[in-house]
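tool=predict chain=A
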Amino acid sequence: MSNFFHGIDPIAYEGPDSTSPLAFRHYNPDEVIMGKRMEEHLRFAVAYWHSFAWEGGDPFGGQTFERPWHPQDDIGRAKTKADAAFDLFDILGQPYFCWHDADIRPEGDSFAASLSNFETIIDYFEEKMSSRKIKLLWGTANMFSHRRWMSGASTNPDPDIFAYSAATVKTCMDATHRLNGENYVLWGGREGYETLLNTDMGRELDHMGRFLNMVVDYKHKIGFKGTILVEPKPQEPSKHQYDYDAATCYGFLQKYGLENEVKLNLEQGHAILAGHSFEHEIATAAALGVLGSIDMNRNDYQSGWDTDQFPNNTPEVALAYYHILKDGGFSTGGTNFDAKLRRQSLDAEDLVAAHIGGMDICARGFKAAAAMIEDGGLDKALAARYSGWDSASAKEMLDSDLSAIFNQVHSGQINPQPTSGRQEILENYVNRFV
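tool=predict ok
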C-alpha cells in the first residue's frame, strides 16, 4: 500500500445526476447491455506507462511530475511505483492493466541485469494479483526508447540489435504468459526509416516478417493461448514507419503468411496521425478479419503529433464501438487507456479523475452504439442502398466477364441513374443516440 492516493476511496457509480468529480456517472460495470455486463463488454485497462512511468515531459520541456518513485532507477522505487499502480487499480475497479518491460523495471547495466530486475517485479506483480481481481490485458516490450533502438529493433541494420530484440521479446512473452495475459502486443516504435539513402527497405521488411514469425512460433511453443497483436502507427517517431495503418499492416501480414495468426491493436491517436478516423481503422480491420483490441485516447486536432489525451468525444467513441459490436465485440481484446495527463495536471486526484472521465465517455459511447444496433436504422439504410446487389442479375454479373457486361450496357438493358447517399440524414440519425 502506498500513500500516493491517500484519502481517495474506491470509485462508485452514482448515476448521471452526480456532481462528484470522483464518481462514475455513466459507467456501471454491472449494467447488462445486449446480454452482457458493461464491464465484460468494455474490458477497460490502465496503461502502466503513461499513468506511472511518464514524468510529464514533452518535446520542448522536461519533467513536471514529482512522484515518490522518481527517479525510476532502482528496484525499491520500482516496487513503490507498483504499490501506487495497484492502489489505482483498486480505486478504479477496472478489470485489466497493460505494461511495457521498461515501464515496470529499472534498466540494468547488462541484459542479464535488466532481466533480473524485470523478473523481480513480475514476482511482485504476481503476488499482488493473487489477492485481486485485476488481470493482464497485454504485455509488450519497449524497443524504441533506449538509444540501442535508434535505428529500429527487428529492422535494425545491426544483427546484434535484432538478437537483443528477440531476447527481449522472449522475456516479455514469458512474463505475459506467466501472468495469464490475454494478448501480447508488438508496437514497432522505430520499425521504419528516416531516409532511403541509408535504408535497404526490402531487407528490413523481410527481417521484420521473419521476426514476427519467430514470435508466433514461440507463442505456440510455450502454449500461450492469447492473441498476438501488432499496433499500427504512422510517422512518429520514424519519418516512414512500416506499420502505417490497418490496411498496411494487413498487407504485411499477408506477405509473410501471418494473416491468420496475428490481429491488430488499434489506437485512436494513431488513426488520426494516419489521416483516418478511428472508426475507419476499426471497420477496416473488422472487414479484413484482424480486429483484436484498441487503445482509447485522442489527439489534439490543432497539433500534428500524438498527444495521447483521455477521450472526451462521445460521438467519436460511439462510432468506434458501433463497429466493434458489429464485428461481434471483443474476445481477448479490450479498451486500454493509452492516455496521459496534461503536464500541468500534477496531482494524484487528476490521474483518478482522468480515468473516471474516460471510462464514462466510453460507457456513454458504448450505450449509444448498442442502442443504434438494437434500433437497426443504419443496417436498414445499408440494406436499402445495396439492395440492387441482391438481385439475380447482379449476382450473375459478378460471375460474368467484361464483354458480356459491355453487351448488356451497350444494348440499353442497363441505364443507371444516381440515387442519394442520404449522408446528412444518417448523421442526424446518429446524433439522436449520442
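The first helix runs from residue 38 to 42. The longest strand covers residues 135-140.
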